[in-house]
Amino acid sequence: MPFEYKHKFYKVNKPEDFNLFLTLTFHPEHRHFLMWTLPLEISYYFILPAFVLGVLKTGRYWWMALAPLYVWVIHEGLYTTRDNYIRQPLTNHLPTFIAGSMAAVLFVKFEAWRKATGFEFRTVHTVALRVVEALLIAAYLSVVFRGLFFNWLGYPLPPATRYIMPFTSVKLSLLIVIEMVQPSTVSQIFEWVVLRYLGKISFSVYLLHVFVIYIEPIQFQTNYYDRTISEFGLVILLATVSYHLVEYPSQLVAQRLSRVFTRLAMYDHQKLVNVEAKDEEGGSSTSDSDDTNDDDLCDSPSDARSRLMSKHSI
């Protein structure tokens, strides 16, 4: 790709700033625009086993580990500024990943407890859960839009002088847990066919939206609504084409390869089982002959002589 397009679509400032090997290996200093999330995700995969092991080791006292973690995540969300998302290390974004992992632990532990105790939601439980859910939604929307309930309750936030990533991980992850344990209208909204389709093509949207929003006829439109509708429509169209021509066929190929590898694994397993079965049959026949010989040795001399004579007569 010529440097002109690297600068235009991936915000590479100088030609020497781009290193293909370091970019493809997700080096933290070579996260050009879209690729800023991948090094963070891959780095967290090395931390996740330690988190899971810690939860397993605490056993029935797992909640004692999650309580201080939630305090830390909330503190970091309130007092740590995340703005230069392309350059910031994992430490600035670690609370987001930890919040998601803790939400998964909460769901698994609650489901295990509900099955063990036979707990069923009653009206009072459902009402309490919906109140908590409504508060989480109100807080989430207020933080994202920097207003709403902050303004309505008389505690307006200071005007934003620059872009800051809002602290939403705890609220959003807990909302997902609540909807998983006791679905409501919120779940039905997210199951709307339009949102499901957008979720299906979302990876193509993520990869290709830069090729729409940074082309000159779109980027320099003065009317906000004209620009937004143009970007939305063209991105959806481009992502749809990419999904049906590239992504979906790739998924089919991956499924076929998975089935082939599964059949090969089953075939190898069956061969191993057959070999073990033959070995067992051979061992049993050998043991039978050994038992016969042992019986012969245990016979008295007269019994052995009579058996020998009967064999010769046959």
UniProtKB/TrEMBL annotation:
A GO molecular-function descriptor: acyltransferase activity, transferring groups other than amino-acyl groups
Keywords: Membrane, Transmembrane, Transmembrane helix
Name this protein carries in UniProt: Acyltransferase 3 domain-containing protein
PANTHER family linked to this entry: ACETYLTRANSFERASE, ACYL_TRANSF_3 DOMAIN-CONTAINING PROTEIN
Keyword rRNA-binding: no
Domain Acyltransferase: 35-215
Biased composition (Acidic residues): 288-298
Keyword Oxidoreductase: no
Transmembrane segments: 33-54, 61-81, 93-110, 131-151, 163-181, 193-215, 227-246
Any one GO cellular component localisation term in the record: membrane
Disordered: annotated span: 277-314
GO biological process: polysaccharide biosynthetic process
